[in-house]
Amino acid sequence: MRKAFVESLCQVAHGNQRVLLLTGDLGFMALEPFRTCFPGRFFNVGVAEQNLVGMATGLAEAGFIPYAYSIATFASLRPFEFIRNGPAMHHLPVRIVGMGMGFEYGHAGPTHHALEDVAVLRTLPAVTTVIPADSGQTRSAIEQTSVLEGPVYYSLGKDDHLTVSGLDGRFELGRIQMVRSGTDLAILSMGSITVEAVAAADELAKRGIRATVAVVSNFHPDPVEDLASLLSTVPHAITLEAQAASGGLGALAGMVIASRGLGCRLWPLAVTQPPDGTSGSQRSCWSRHGLDRDAVVECGMMALGRRNGGG
Questions:
Q1: 112, 23, 25, 110: which is closest to 68 by C-alpha?
Q2: Are 31 and 146 within one domain?
Q3: Domain holding 26: CATH number?
Q4: How many structural domains is the chain composed of?
Q5: Which of 104, 124, 169, 262 lies at a C-alpha separation of 20 to 30 Å from 5?
Q6: What is the band of 141 on the pLDDT scale with cuts at 50, 70, 90?
Q7: Do 147 and 15 share a domain, yes or no?
Q8: Beta bridge partner(s), residue 68
């Protein structure tokens, strides 16, 4: 998604001279296309994330549209107070770009695992939070949100080759995107781990279980109506997210079910264990935390009472 982000931002910048790109001494071998095209609109502020957001806030107040780029944990958690007191409170068009969603920086260890960024930014109603599932959706999201007057947080993946079958780049604020359909259960997913949700749905289909897979790619505006419509049609729903269990997609789905009085049972799959110092590939982290396709299949079978061939 990183290449898709940079290419899309260059297109947006060609049409709007107010667009700037700031980086916290990161993005080498990735951000060069923007720097080459717009050398006077590219700034490396160094390893100083609070200053990164503070500078972006000042530039936005002066009439620019700054995109502030860093690793997701550094972009969202270190400068959170600056985001809250600056662009969120003053409704400024600062774009915070967090690279490496979930476990994408797996080998770098727990300090680089972005497991709380979405939940933390969801506490700020003024901040539109965007979590694309693949490169095609990233392109659509950057283009559509470039015109928003308020702040945006993007939680992006690094994998430029990731493609979610059936998504076809679709993105719309306040809506969900269906990529599989079925009435036995629903699988709600956000971000790059959606590939596991789709693979799980395909495996469940081989076992006679038809699952809807819905991509939830943004909050504020929350896709409440779409979720309520979907969750009213299925007896079970699994939420899948490479995020901490509190405050993310599972929390939103639970709120919709409870507030609308729906009969759907929720099965949340998220990170529930504290960091233990273990590092590894993204896929190994998904497996260790029970978030891979096998875990989703097992959850679906359990929900329908068919575990180990039962039911």
A1: 23
A2: yes
A3: 3.40.50.970
A4: 2
A5: 124
A6: very high
A7: yes
A8: 22, 96
At 310 the pLDDT is 41
Instruction: Please give the C-alpha separations between residue 46 and each of 124, 127, 135, 146, 204, in angstroms, as whole numbers.
Output: 26, 25, 27, 25, 48
Among the listed residues 198, 259, 209, the one whose alpha carbon sits nearest the alpha carbon of residue 231 = 259
| 78 phi and psi angles, rounded to 5 deg | -60, -45
Q: Is the pLDDT of residue 218 over 50?
A: yes
28 with 77, same domain: the answer is: yes
Taking only Cα atoms into account, the Rg of the chain, rounded to an integer number of angstroms, comes to 19
Q: Is the pLDDT of residue 238 over 80?
A: yes
Which range marks the domain in which residue 264 is found?
A: 176-309
C-alpha triplet 172, 177, 182: angle, nearest 5°:
160
Tokens of 269: 């799959």
Using CA atoms, how far apart are residues 101 and 115, in angstroms rounded to an integer? Answer: 8
Residues 220 and 141 in one domain: no
Q: Tell me whether residue 7 is in a domain.
A: yes
pTM: 0.94
CA distances to 86, 93, 185 from 48, rounded to whole Å, are 16, 20, 45
Residue 306 above 80 pLDDT? no
Exposed, middle or buried by CB within 10 Å (0-12, 13-18, 19+), for 306? middle
Helix, strand, coil % in the chain, rounded to nearest 5: 40, 20, 40
Instruction: Cite the beta strand spans of the chain per DSSP E.
Output: 19-23, 42-44, 65-71, 95-99, 128-130, 152-156, 176-180, 185-189, 211-216, 218-219, 236-244, 265-271
Share of the chain above pLDDT 90, in %: 90
Residue 5 · residue 27 · CB < 8 Å: no
Q: Residue 80 above 60 pLDDT?
A: yes
Q: Which amino acid is at 260?
A: R
**Does 100 reside within a domain?**
yes
Residue-by-residue DSSP string for 69-132: EEEHHHHHTTTHHHHIIIIIHHT---EEEEES-BTTTGGG-GGG-BSSHHHHHHT-TTSEEE--
